[in-house]
Design brief:
The protein is an alpha/beta fold and 347 residues long. It has 3 domains: 129 residues, Elongation Factor Tu (Ef-tu), domain 3, CATH 2.40.30; 107 residues, 3-Layer(aba) Sandwich (Rossmann fold), CATH 3.40.50.80; 81 residues, Ubiquitin-like (UB roll) (Roll), CATH 3.10.20.30. The chain is 22% helix and 30% strand. It contains 10 helices and 18 strands. A 6-stranded antiparallel beta sheet has the order 4-3-6-1-2-5. The protein has a 5-stranded parallel beta sheet with strand order 9-8-7-10-11, sandwiched between helices. The two termini are 22 Å apart. Bound molecules: FE2/S2 (inorganic) cluster. FE2/S2 (inorganic) cluster (FES) binds next to loops. This is Putative Oxidoreductase. Pfam families: FAD_binding_6 (PF00970), NAD_binding_1 (PF00175). It comes from Pseudoalteromonas phenolica.
Length: 347
């Protein structure tokens, strides 16, 4: 039966599944309903600082409960285009169970092609989120843990502390690096000091305090957890290896185009089944067709979304306005997109 439905979807409706074909109809009744995604309603937007926002979301009931430290992909619609970025959830599973809400704390960039739109989200409007993802979670066995956070890398630690019981015996010391006076959620950290007797933290900045290494107490660290920029991750990895301290990290690596955008180049597209080499001179849809890859499409102009697929990694250019994506997960339309780096796609 499932095969018949799949056959009809693919051949009659040009969609991966029947639900996808009925998406526009469903959206009249349920705004932002999308096949394969979870709906989530905006329940709060708070400006934390000049360039940081806290967004509170109420995921639909069937959303799986996350574990503190995990992240989601957030998708919003902007001028008919779906754009997504990955964010760590900045609240614990306990809060979700009690209130049905999760928090995201997001650094905004004026010139970015995602975060400037977040401030425009209306209260009670709908967005899409993925299921919770990631393995960066707290080891229950560890008694003395050092958390090392950089910038918005504080968010998974907030979620982990949020979920700790008042009577926990765990000793946690947080080293939090950010530019002077731009540490996020310090008020929340101060509340944890009252609630969790064995918790402490230091607010540090690179120019004044230098490397984190002199702030880590080796005898009081069973494990180091790191979330921050690439350089912090590399330094922490070396530090832990040389001192035999278990180490776990979450970091988001910035990938930049390796070729000039005007220069003709070929890139590898990793697909669910096998790889493909494409040129950066034509749309991904045309490239796929020229390789006889079966691919769904309709208008060929970026309107119908039938050629939509999930980009897991890599940078693409939108042919319509030349804008570049970033390296994170995002829904793209193959007919109006060109490769700018190697890509990983889920068709
Ligand atoms: S085929 Fe219609 S949006 Fe790509």
């Amino acid at each position: 039966m499932q095969n018949i439905s799949q056959f009809i979807s693919n051949n009659l409706f040009h969609h991966k599944d029947l639900a996808g074909y009925f998406e526009p109809v469903m959206q009249v009744i349920k705004p932002a309903w999308r096949s394969g995604f979870f709906r989530s309603q905006v329940k709060g937007i708070r400006v934390l600082s000049e360039n940081a926002l806290k967004i509170t979301l109420k995921p639909e009931k069937k959303w799986p409960i996350h574990t503190a430290g995990q992240h989601i992909s957030l998708t919003i619609e902007q001028q008919g285009r779906l754009i997504s970025r990955v964010f760590t959830i900045a609240s614990g599973a306990k809060k979700l169970k009690e209130t049905g809400l999760i928090d995201l704390v997001i650094r905004t960039h004026d010139k970015g092609n995602f975060t400037p739109y977040l401030g425009e989200l209306a209260m009670n409007s709908w967005v899409n989120i993925s299921e919770p993802m990631g393995e960066f979670i707290f080891d229950e066995q560890s008694n003395h843990t050092t958390f090392l956070a950089g910038g918005s890398g504080i968010t998974p630690f907030i979620a982990m502390l949020d979920d700790l019981q008042e009577n926990t015996q765990k000793h946690i010391h947080l080293l939090y690096y950010a530019k002077p006076n731009s540490h996020l959620m310090v008020d929340v950290l101060e509340k944890f000091l009252i609630r969790l007797p064995n918790f402490s933290f230091e607010l540090l900045n690179r120019s004044q305090h230098g490397s984190f290494s002199k702030f880590v107490s080796i005898e009081h660290t069973d494990e180091l957890l790191v979330c921050g920029p690439e350089e912090m991750y590399v330094e922490a990895e070396e530090f832990c290896k040389s001192r035999h301290i278990p180490f776990r990290a979450e970091h988001f690596q910035a990938i930049k185009p390796t070729k000039s955008l005007n220069e003709a180049a070929r890139f590898t597209v990793k697909l669910n089944h096998g790889d493909l080499e494409v040129s950066n001179q034509d749309s991904l849809l045309s490239e796929f067709q020229s390789h006889n890859k079966p691919v769904m499409y309709g208008c060929g102009m970026g309107i119908c979304h039938q050629c939509q697929c999930l980009k897991k990694k890599g940078i693409v250019r939108d042919i319509r306005d030349g804008s570049l994506s970033d390296n994170s997960e995002e829904l793209i339309q193959l007919c109006v997109t060109q490769a700018v780096t190697d890509l990983e796609l889920e068709l």
